[in-house]
Amino acid sequence: MQFTINVGGEQVIDRTLLRFVERLESAQPAFERIGDQFAQAEMANFLTQGGGWAPLSPGYAAYKAARFPGRPILVRTGEMRDSLTHRPFGIDTVGDTRAEFGTADPKAKYHQHGTSKMPARPPVKVSEGNRNEMAKTLQRYLMTGSI
């Protein structure tokens, strides 16, 4: 992409625009950092139990206490939690212009949205603050090249 402005600082402006265009073509470094930020957000989600996930039903709480003592809500074996809090995630794809992060655990969708017999306890929760932090990471990268 060629963009020319005929003013005193033409070369500086052209170089800046060319570097910006290059970063638009591949934002992989920013996406990698955003993946790390996602892991931190998910770790906080599990540590705070979603900020107040619904308690387990009495029957399931007794079953879980007997078979998986000391395990918090949404942690039975730890596989789903680990697939969201440690890289590589269950779904961890970073490309030049797109990134996708999440879990491939089939139980996650039932916990995320709930069922007729179980309230939602979203294992994937990215707060407004987390989203803002991730957006700033991408903006900083596109504008300055640093993450």
Structural class: mainly alpha
Distance between the termini: 24 Å
Mean of residue pLDDT values: 88
Large-scale geometry: elongated
Radius of gyration computed on alpha carbons: 21 Å
**Biggest beta-sheet profile:** 2 strands, antiparallel
**What's the β-strand tally?**
2
The number of helical segments is: 6
Helix/strand order: HHHHEEHH
Unreliable stretches, pLDDT < 50, 5 or more residues? 1-6, 8-14
Sequence of strands across the biggest β-sheet: 1-2
Work out the helicity level.
40-55%
- The share of residues in extended strands comes to 5-15%
Report on this structure.
It contains 6 helices and 2 strands. The chain is mainly α and 147 residues long. It has one domain. Helix 2 packs antiparallel against helix 6. The chain is elongated and about 60 Å long. The N terminus is likely disordered.
Task: Please supply descriptive tags for the structure shown above.
147 residues; 5% strand; mainly alpha; 6 helices; elongated; disordered N terminus; single chain; two-stranded antiparallel sheet
Short description:
This protein is mainly alpha-helical and 147 residues long.
